[in-house]
Amino acid sequence: MFDSVLKPESRRSFVAFSIWGAVVFGVLQVHRLPAFTEHSICSPAWGCGPPLNALISYHGFWLVLFASPIWLMSRLLTIKRLHAIGSLLATLGVVAVIAVVIWQAINWLPTASEFQRGFFIQRCLFKVAVMVDVPTVQVLLAGFTCLFVAQVRHRQRDHAPSPLPDAEPQIIDQSNRQPSNRTSESVN
Residues 167-179, buried b or exposed e (16+ Cβ, 10 A)? Predict the structure, then answer.
């Protein structure tokens, strides 16, 4: 029953999962640090955001949460699938940013003063940055990371040396369609 616990693969997985869990817990505890406890991101154009340590904590949580699956996918998936997942994640992130811009244009822009309207782009970026319930920034980063890794792996594959550079060319025997060990000199 406990044989799988004693196997090296299981121990490595347990240790890796434990470290990952400890990092997630540690990142979530950043909000308790006494530094950056005030509303440090403020502007007369868009108001104040949450305390910076809370933003760091939640964004860090999402980054750590996404890091493990992205690392596994980059190692286990084919280039084609990794590219597809990267494209999907990047598209979802861009759609989320566009949704924030549309929402701000519909709800905030009509009520904003003339002074505040000049900061519309900054307001939208601010809203994306302080949006910790939906990991828009992290989905974008995950998508672009998958696309980057797929591109690097594709280039490495294209520039990899031939597996058998000194192999003799084989001539296919037309009678039974099997490779023959005869060289071109022995055919003549």
Answer: eeeeeeeeeeeee
Q: Is residue 165 part of a domain?
A: no
Q: What is the pTM of this model?
A: 0.71
CA distance 23 to 66: 12
Strands 178-180 and 171-173: antiparallel
Q: Which of 7-16, 23-32, 123-132, 167-176 has the lowest mean pLDDT?
A: 167-176
**Residue carrying the six token digits 């294209």:** 158
Q: How confident is the model at residue 116 (pLDDT cuts 50, 70, 90)?
A: confident
Q: Give the chain's domain count.
A: 1
* Range of the structural domain that residue 46 is part of: 3-158
The single residue listed with the structure tokens 């000049």 is 118
Q: How many CB atoms lie within 10 A of CB 183?
A: 12
